[in-house]
Write a structure and sequence with these properties.
175 residues, two-stranded antiparallel ribbon, 2 helices, 8 strands, 20% helix, elongated
Length: 175
């Protein structure tokens, strides 16, 4: 349940963080704010199969881990969430369609990824419950599906773990 709540809180935070970010280009060259999704991009609408879903950010839980704790220490677990970024940048020169096209969408992608990284580490704790931790790593793959540009960030979060309930005289596990 905690990982579920973290994913919901993170996507709400990201929606708010990019609410005024419009440097990502959408279809047709217009600038628009990135849409934020959980787990995956939504399925295509068959009636609008050509519609471009860019720019976007997708948050996906990868795994979680409970560390063995020392007695009387605070109990925390970690959850790893990957953030997938996508932008659309066709790099077409409208003044001279025959001109050399420089695939510069990586700059727009990098700007969006850096904007989100800064927003996360300026806030650090979201919903007074979930803490983003180091290391934070990101990557932009060499091969890109031009004119679409994609990147990935790996995040680690500290979340409160389950607290053991020990009842004296009650055998909870049959031991």
């Amino acid at each position: 349940m905690t990982a579920f709540l973290l994913l919901k809180s993170l996507t709400a935070f990201l929606r708010q963080a990019v609410d005024e970010y419009t440097a990502a280009q959408g279809q047709g060259g217009e600038f628009r704010k990135p849409e934020v999704f959980e787990w995956n991009l939504p399925f295509k609408n068959a009636r609008q199969a050509e519609k471009i879903d860019f720019p976007y950010i997708v948050a996906r839980i990868i795994n979680g881990e409970d560390q063995q704790q020392k007695p009387d220490s605070l109990l925390f677990s970690s959850v790893k969430i990957d953030l997938y970024f996508g932008i659309y940048q066709d790099s077409v020169n409208d003044q001279d369609p025959e001109a050399f096209v420089h695939p510069d969408g990586a700059y727009d992608l990098l700007n969006l990824m850096e904007y989100v990284r800064q927003a996360l580490f300026e806030e650090v704790i979201i919903d007074n419950k979930f803490t983003v931790e180091y290391p934070y790593s990101w990557e932009i793959p060499d091969e890109q599906p031009y004119p679409l540009w994609v990147g990935l960030a790996h995040t680690t979060w500290s979340v409160q773990t389950v607290t053991r309930q020990n009842y004296e005289g009650v055998d909870l596990h049959g031991w």
